[in-house]
Amino acid sequence: MTSFSVKKPFTVFVAVVAILVFGVMSYVKMTPDLMPNMDYPYVVVVTTYPGAAPEEVEAVVTKPMEQSMATLNDIKTVTSTSAENYSMLVLEFEQSTNMDSAVVDILQKTQMLTGRWDDSIGTPSIIRINPNMIPVMVAAVDSSEMDRYELSRFAKDTVIPALEGTTGVASITTGGMIERTMTIEVNEAKLDKMNAKIAEAIDKAMEDARKQLEDAQKELDENREKVEAGTNQLLSASSGISDSIKQGEDDLADTLTAAGETAAKLASARAAIDALNAQLEQ
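^ that's the sequence the OP posted. Answer follows.
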């Protein structure tokens, strides 16, 4: 190498100049980034199951999900967490894996599983791990003039809104916040006594209502009997009136007949008298 440099200094000079030029160009065009865009071979799958205990989440969601994800290509490890109301799987792939294709395969696997799940189980969320998800700053808040409740309220009402308004801040996650809570304990003996009184009052009201209903039904039956008796009497009276009217018609007919006969007799007697008077006049 030394002999070559001595024999051909111009060639060596040109090579050194080219290296310097390319180095300067690379340095000028290089864009440094605090958090460069790197493709990590990790995917997180989170599935919600509201109201389910960790054991039920593991049996219904986590186990089938693990078995399905274990068949993916280039899968390295599967780590799962089953907690109350949700299941989380962390999938690690080989470094050379195309993560875009891996996410598509995971989506297909989850769609096959969701078709057999209950409607209360949420749709799995697929999250790719990238440096942008890592916090770039961690800060603590402390004060000797505030207790932990006042300090939590100060951080929630003052510090966090001020930081959220800062340019470039995407999100803020808090931890260790303390809020006052109230626990109400019910006296079981008093509650049972109150329930007994309420039940007794309800039973009494029901008994009174039942008695009133029976009295009303009895009164209704009595009135119905009275109505039926009155109807029968009315029918009997109507029948008697009809018989009396018919008898009166018959008596009137007989009377008219007798009156006609009497009138005929009177006419005959008057004729005889008239004839006798005529004879006497002669």
